[in-house]
Specification:
By secondary structure, the protein is mainly β. It is built from 3 helices and 32 strands. The two termini are about 25 Å apart.
Length: about 525
């Protein structure tokens, strides 16, 4: 398998810090209901700097927050719950005024929480408000912000023209689409029903960006796709528990701040806590490939760390060894960053993880009729494996394949699996007997199916983009393209006569997420 990692750093779970002269005010309140101690209150400032406070057994909390900050609940189990705001009729006031004081009783809803907006509490809130329904809360509540908002792309453009502010000038602590979820915690921050990992909105430059991305790389013999053979949830769980990886990294854009350590606070998430199941998948002393991540705790404070070394971004690549119920949308991770300019807490929300990889449905070469792949494929004897490569009739091959899937997002989509749209596609080629991993030019790709378009330039295994939207998984939902393997190899000085190559069919988000299926072909000659 290849080990090439896409290096264009566009954040999907992005967090940020910039200096601000505003002073924090102490805000108090009391969460009502059963077991309030199972929550944390997070204050997210406009520039995305954050503070976190535990909720006591009696429901009381106290947190520092700056003017225009918003308050949020995160469960101690590590899931984002929703915003806290003052409600009155159809109005929801989320932004704080910067006044210190007590906002009163906080009542839990489904994906949101409210306090009363009245004469006692209104001084603690700014006048900015979002639409609100007393039953369902703000528009993005309970959906992690994946909603079609009336303040969508067209309305955002009109607003920008009217007030002279571009979307990219908004800071991550702001709520670009006015759905009640700030962009930092919103998986669809422009309200167009497309995940930000394929529909990135640029924000004002900030000191730090953090990213969490999933990787799922499969062979033809262990491939799983929802559109092939109706796999069970248990089979999907087993697949991702054995093959899913997570990359966490921190990009330092600050002017002169040196990062000395980054602690990762995951609450009690099964893979990421102080006793989590994740193992490290990188070998950089003093950490060792295959070691337990929670043991990598240089400060001894109970938090696993990112690997920090001079000349590289702080990062960690882990194998969570978690099932779909243990890892997924809404997992909230606090990066506790220790720098030469002080300590900071920055939250990030995991938008999704891959549940499956792309899967070859059929191929044709040299004018032959399409040949259908029969799943499951035997690891040693199956056609398309290393021991039995597919023999092509020409140096070109046409591939028809199913898209990768993710789990449907709770509260926002019908339960089940989603064929992912908006991903970039392409291939890596690894000739037999060589350690080289090759990429192909745009001219090597042709006969694209209707929703595939070539990109302006190749970036690694990214040559085409699927312009279709996310939809419920369906076996009729396929993509097709032709690759001139011979031209790609010849250009790079590789003989094509009887050559066997491993092709990685790769799908990549606009961030670091990547999934692939490996198929072995033998060229004629």
């Amino acid at each position: 398998m290849y080990s090439t990692l896409k290096t264009t750093f566009i954040s999907l779970a992005t967090i940020a810090i910039v200096a601000t002269p505003a002073q924090a005010a102490r805000v108090k309140g009391k969460v009502t209901g059963d077991s309030p101690q199972n929550y944390k209150v997070v204050a997210v400032n406009k520039n995305a700097s954050s503070t976190v406070a535990a909720v006591k057994a009696n429901g009381s909390f106290s947190v520092n927050a700056k003017k225009n900050a918003t308050l949020h609940l995160v469960s101690t189990s590590g899931k984002y719950v929703g915003p806290i705001g003052a409600a009155k009729g159809s109005k929801f006031y989320a932004n704080l005024s910067g006044e210190k004081g007590n906002i009163g009783k906080v009542t839990l809803g489904n994906g949101f929480a409210t306090t009363k907006y009245n004469g006692k509490t209104r001084k603690y809130y700014a006048r900015k408000k979002v639409s609100f329904d007393s039953s369902t809360g703000p528009l993005g509540a309970g959906k992690f912000g994946l909603v079609l908002n009336p303040v969508g792309a067209d309305a955002l453009a009109k607003r920008a023209k009217k007030v002279g502010v571009r979307a990219e000038d908004d800071e991550l602590g702001e709520d670009l689409d006015s759905d009640g979820i700030p962009d930092l915690l919103d998986i669809d921050d422009d309200g167009d029903l497309e995940l930000d990992i394929v529909d990135e909105v640029q924000h004002a430059q900030t000191d730090f960006n953090a990213e969490i991305a999933s990787t799922l790389r499969l062979e033809l013999s262990n491939s799983l796709n929802i559109n092939v053979g109706s796999p069970t949830d248990s089979q999907v769980d087993s697949l991702i528990q054995s093959n899913l990886f997570l990359l966490m990294l921190l990009q330092n854009n600050s002017n002169g701040a040196t990062v000395s350590s980054v602690n990762v606070d995951c609450g009690s998430l099964s893979y990421c806590s102080s006793s989590g199941t994740a193992i490290i998948q990188m070998d950089n002393p003093p950490i060792t490939n295959g070691s337990v991540w929670s043991d990598y705790d240089p400060e001894g404070d109970g938090f696993p760390n990112l690997f920090v070394t001079e000349g590289r971004m702080p990062e960690i690549n882990i194998k969570p060894q978690a099932t779909r119920s243990q890892i997924g949308t809404g997992d909230t991770i606090f990066f506790r960053i220790n720098t030469s300019n002080g300590n900071q807490i920055l939250p990030a929300v995991l938008p999704f993880v891959f549940s499956t990889a792309p899967a070859l449905k059929e191929y044709s070469s040299g004018g032959s009729n399409p040949v259908t792949i029969s799943y499951p494929v035997d690891a040693s004897l199956g056609s398309g494996t290393s021991g039995n490569p597919i023999v092509l009739g020409a140096q070109q091959v046409t591939l028809t394949f199913w898209k990768p899937q993710r789990s449907a997002i709770d509260g926002a989509e019908t339960p089940g699996y989603i064929d992912m749209g908006g991903l970039n596609y392409g291939v890596y080629l690894s000739p037999q007997g060589s350690t080289s991993v090759l990429t192909c030019e745009l001219s090597d790709y042709s006969n694209l199916s209707s929703t595939l378009q070539t990109l302006s330039a190749v970036n690694g295994a990214q040559a085409m983009v699927d312009t279709a939207a996310d939809v419920t998984a369906s076996a009729s939902n396929t993509l097709t393209f032709t690759l001139d393997i011979g031209a790609c190899l010849t250009r790079q000085g590789v003989s094509t006569t009887g050559t066997t190559v491993m092709m990685d069919l790769v799908a990549t988000s606009q961030a670091q997420d990547q999934t692939s299926q490996s198929i072995h072909f033998k060229l004629p000659g």
